[in-house]
Task: inverse folding
């Protein structure tokens, strides 16, 4: 939907959108940067994480348990014929485009967007049976914990987008997307700033919460953020929506696609 005032609204939203979105902006931007730049954890965090008794090296203690057990680390070379890809579908961040691309080239794509769908696919033995090449899910922790195991580990891809761009896109999209379960026609009567500062916007620290397995209105803390950063840095192949072509090329390389 084209809106002539869109750039102005976007600029205003970026500047004064309020603590909900600003917290998301800083946390998620830092999250994405940390997938490339290594920043060691604080001493307090190291002491807390050393309480976890695992057989892995100290550097992996900050990775979430589901990722440590069921996701291949970057140090492990890709084996496309033996791996089922898990694509973390972050809303309004290019996931639907990636899904269409891989369906178009003949990949077997499965959708596990909601917890109920994930449990149904678990009972069908989706990953062990090799019925899918890629699984798209908005709940990476739940999907990886229940669909994969020690013998069938995931290779995880994720496409990121600037959080303010993503929220602005979501605001306008759900006003008209009557086919979506989360369709919000009443947002069409709201100002974007009013929406961003109201209870309607539940995306505060969304990505950290998804990795931590927390609900949208649950609080997050520094430990959650540090673990999320480490999990992305050590266990996920990262793409960015602003560089869609390069990101898809990177994903294809991991999957052995020419």
Result:
């Amino acid at each position: 939907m084209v809106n002539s005032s869109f750039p102005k609204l976007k600029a205003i939203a970026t500047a004064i959108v309020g603590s909900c979105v600003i917290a998301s902006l800083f946390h998620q931007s830092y999250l994405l940067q940390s997938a490339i730049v290594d920043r060691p954890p604080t001493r307090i965090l190291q002491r807390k994480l050393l309480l976890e008794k695992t057989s892995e090296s100290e550097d992996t203690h900050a990775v979430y348990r589901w990722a440590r057990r069921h996701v291949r680390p970057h140090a492990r070379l890709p084996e496309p014929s033996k791996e089922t890809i898990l694509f973390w579908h972050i809303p309004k961040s290019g996931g639907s485009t990636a899904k269409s691309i891989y369906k178009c080239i003949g990949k077997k794509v499965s959708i596990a967007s909601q917890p109920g769908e994930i449990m149904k696919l678990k009972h069908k033995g989706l990953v062990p049976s090799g019925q899918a090449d890629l699984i798209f899910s908005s709940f990476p922790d739940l999907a990886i914990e229940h669909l994969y195991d020690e013998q069938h580990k995931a290779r995880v891809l994720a496409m990121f987008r600037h959080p303010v761009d993503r929220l602005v896109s979501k605001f306008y999209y759900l006003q008209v997307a009557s086919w979506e379960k989360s369709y919000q026609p009443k947002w069409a009567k709201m100002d974007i700033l009013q929406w961003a500062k109201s209870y309607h916007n539940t995306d505060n620290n969304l990505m950290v919460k998804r990795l931590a397995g927390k609900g949208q209105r649950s609080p997050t803390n520094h430990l959650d953020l540090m673990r999320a950063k480490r999990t992305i840095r050590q266990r996920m192949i990262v793409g960015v929506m602003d560089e869609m072509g390069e990101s898809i090329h990177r994903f294809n390389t991991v999957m052995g696609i020419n």
Remarks:
- Residues 11-41, 44-60 have pLDDT under 50 and may be disordered.
- The chain has twelve helices and five strands.
- The first strand starts at residue 84 and ends at 88.
- The longest helix spans residues 19-33.
